[in-house]
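Can anyone check this?
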Amino acid sequence: MLLLAIDTSANASAALLAVNGADVEVLGSFTSDVGNDHSEVLAPAIESMLEAAGGAKPEAIAVGVGPGPFTGLRVGLATARTLGFVWNVPVHGVMSLDAMARQALAGEPGGDFTVAIDARRKELYWARYDKRGGLIDGPHVSVAEDVPPGEIYGAGAGLYAERLAAVGAHPVRGFEDLHPDAVSLGTCAARALADGAPLLGTDPLYLRDSDAKVPAVMKGKLL
């Protein structure tokens, strides 16, 4: 099966994977190094990967549902839904922090651990996992001081290392720049499909209200 994976909960990321049961081969991948160019770079990156793979049509799509910022997350979800409709293929949702947890397993956690990314507003998006990468708690959005003690992986740990250390959460060296990426997200989806495990829909995990508000002067005109 040819699987297209998309994640825009942090930087724009996409990957094309050849899936044979639990075996996953990466045919192409892309991750932007700019944090706010999702709408400009995602579609061209996907087009380039498909062309490099001979123009074959993916048989399924996996998309990160967050948590993440409104604008970036919407770009990935809208792209996945549109391509799924055009290609008439299923679109599966995966929590982006689950993909990070899979990456964190390379650090051989000694027990339960946390993954965290920047949620802006001096807060973190985070979730708690057991040492095999199984979700225990979350996702949450909160200040660093609310994160449980123990090992913590991800770019959020690098941002607030001192505040986390004060509550007993210890950033794992070498994983302070870890973000969700499409290769790990697609691998999560592929393994779940191979195991017959359920995947999510494509509803976004925003976790908090949008910063965009209707001006008071306009509210009466919209009623």
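Reply from J.R.: I decoded it. The mean pLDDT is 91.
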